[in-house]
């Protein structure tokens, strides 16, 4: 299949395909296109975004079955082969012989590469090593001075994940200010977010930038795009006085306060009715995982508020109302709220 035909056929399943490189298109045509067509026959759409609990379980099942099929010792060897140079050739041969790409993707309507990245995150033992010790922080600073931002190399030297060392160094190097945000800092944050969002919007839809430019200081925040993941380490650099996690937290608080426009939905009888509506809507979705919920639609349950606001209120509701909620699945939490908390709220109202 030629490149133009592949891109055209993939566009049916991936709307942003025009932004994907030619080399990636070729790989997707070989590894994903037939899978996508099979899912279409079953009435299943290709998905993006956060993986559900069901999908995570399927990935785990796929990996375990492939290990059993090939006799490879561990998921770490399978997914991080470069860490085992003595077994590298054998593992690569087994992957090819037993169609690793197809096997790991079974039952999951997503691009193969995203499934592979998710599997690596799930099975990387270096992702779960807890807090950094003082010695590790010193090592991280030394390695960064030697190797720059080659996080892959530094991650190998420290037996941590790439993302972990990059984020930790970002936190260490920042001139951290733990006090209240000043007006100047807040404005820098707003400007930084606006700048990166303008760039993202321009890449996805050039015509959207002109409308963004013409907007006043507040309306542009209403754009749905602002709920997407933002490059926080880049924003941190632009702000200068706060590290990335503080920037993210402050931005979320800005979104909530800006978009709620001072409306007090969770006070008095309005608050009770909002909680009742929220529980009912969540129960009606029959979702097995939080990522399956359309939080934008749910925002209508409490009024003209952003998705992040509704998610925050749901979190507070489950923490205050559901005993041992950490041990329950998402659907179990919703059932408890519906069966136990809802009648109580309705009686109170």
TrEMBL record:
Residues 124-172, 173-255 form the Myb-like domain. One of its GO terms (biological process) is termination of RNA polymerase I transcription. GO terms for cellular component: nucleolus. Gene3D superfamilies: Homeodomain-like. PROSITE patterns: HTH_MYB, MYB_LIKE. Coiled coil: none annotated. InterPro entries: Homeodomain-like_sf, Myb_dom, SANT/Myb, TTF1-like. One of its GO terms (molecular function) is chromatin binding. Residues 124-161 form the HTH myb-type domain. Signal peptide: none annotated. This is TTF1 factor. It comes from Cnemophilus loriae (Loria's bird-of-paradise). The lineage of its organism: Eukaryota, Metazoa, Chordata, Craniata, Vertebrata. The gene is Ttf1.
């Amino acid at each position: 299949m030629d490149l133009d035909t592949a891109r055209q056929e993939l566009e049916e399943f991936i709307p942003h395909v025009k932004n994907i490189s030619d080399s990636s298109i070729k790989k997707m045509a070989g590894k994903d296109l037939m899978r996508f067509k099979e899912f279409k026959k079953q009435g299943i759409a290709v998905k993006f975004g956060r993986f559900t609990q069901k999908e995570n379980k399927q990935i785990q099942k796929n990996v375990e079955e492939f290990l059993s099929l090939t006799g490879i010792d561990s998921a770490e060897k399978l997914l991080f082969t470069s860490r085992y140079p003595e077994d590298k050739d054998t593992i690569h041969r087994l992957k090819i012989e037993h169609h690793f790409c197809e096997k790991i993707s079974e039952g999951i309507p997503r691009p193969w590469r995203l499934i592979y990245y998710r599997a690596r995150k799930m099975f990387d033992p270096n992702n779960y090593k807890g807090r950094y010790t003082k010695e590790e922080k010193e090592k991280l600073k030394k390695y960064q001075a030697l190797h720059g931002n080659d996080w892959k190399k530094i991650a190998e030297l420290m037996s941590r994940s790439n993302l972990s060392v990059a984020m930790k160094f970002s936190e260490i190097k920042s001139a951290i200010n733990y006090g209240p945000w000043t007006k100047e800092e807040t404005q820098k944050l707003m400007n930084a977010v606006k700048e990166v969002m303008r760039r993202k919007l321009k890449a996805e839809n050039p015509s959207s930038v002109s409308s963004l430019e013409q907007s006043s200081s507040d309306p542009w925040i209403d754009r749905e795009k602002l709920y997407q993941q933002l490059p926080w380490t880049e924003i941190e650099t632009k702000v200068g006085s706060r590290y990335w996690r503080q920037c993210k937290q402050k931005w979320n608080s800005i979104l909530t306060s800006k978009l709620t426009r001072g409306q007090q939905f969770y006070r008095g009888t309005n608050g009770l009715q909002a909680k009742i509506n929220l529980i009912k809507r969540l129960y009606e979705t029959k979702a097995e995982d939080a990522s399956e919920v359309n939080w934008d639609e749910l925002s209508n349950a409490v009024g003209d508020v952003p998705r992040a606001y509704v998610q925050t209120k749901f979190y507070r509701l489950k923490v205050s109302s559901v005993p041992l909620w950490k041990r329950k699945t998402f659907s179990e939490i919703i059932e408890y709220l519906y069966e136990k908390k809802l009648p109580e709220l309705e009686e109170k109202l």
